[in-house]
Amino acid sequence: MRTWQVGDVMTREVATVVVETPYREVVDVLLRRNVSAAPVVDGFRRVLGVVSEADLLHRIERAGEPAQRRVFESRHRRDARSRSEALMAGDLMTAPAVTTYPEATLAAAARLMDRERVKRLPVLDDLGRLVGIVSRADLLRVHLRSDAEIREDVVQEVLRRVLAVRDGLVTVKVRHGEVDLAGRLDHRSAVDLAGRLAAQVSGVVRVTNAIAYDTDDTVTDPGQVMPVA
């Protein structure tokens, strides 16, 4: 069963700069393309880092401050000061960049963003070349799928293709991304699997599994448990 991947939602036309791009030109690229960050790439479109609005704002934040370096200066403040004095993208950028790939699941990309505290991820191909960029907003697009599309996936992919359930045994209702399953199957394992797989369908917010079963085949028979030597 295929779920949506980063390649399905990423932006393919990416605003980029190079190491030698001047500060003001970086600002122009971000404003003109209406983006908050741009990957810094080399001649082979390999990502060297990312320069963001936050990196650029260090110059504004420190405008008017004394130029001399302070002896007792934290690393964070020293890095900020260094960026405020930078004139080119290569000095402004945050490196190395946190990246992902087109085949990554949306859930994996979301976890990576959360763990690394970034708002977007450059997307690389097998050779490490930039092919797109995915943002938090892009990841949310999966929840714009219609209820009809979600229901079709649950019926066709989960019930028919994976579980081979005959039509009429299970009913599927979807409202605002919330899936309700009802009906009856022979085995509890099939009921549990139907619920788990339905929850993995792209765009599903919640699953209520009310499918009944005739036999609980998930109970372990004590007589089949092998003793530990």
UniProtKB/TrEMBL annotation:
SUPFAM superfamilies: CBS-domain pair. InterPro entries: BON_dom, CBS_dom, CBS_dom_sf, Diverse_CBS-Domain, UCP036990_CBS_BON. Residues 146-215 form the BON domain. Residues 10-67, 93-149 form the CBS domain. Coiled coil: none annotated. Keywords: CBS domain. This is CBS domain-containing protein.
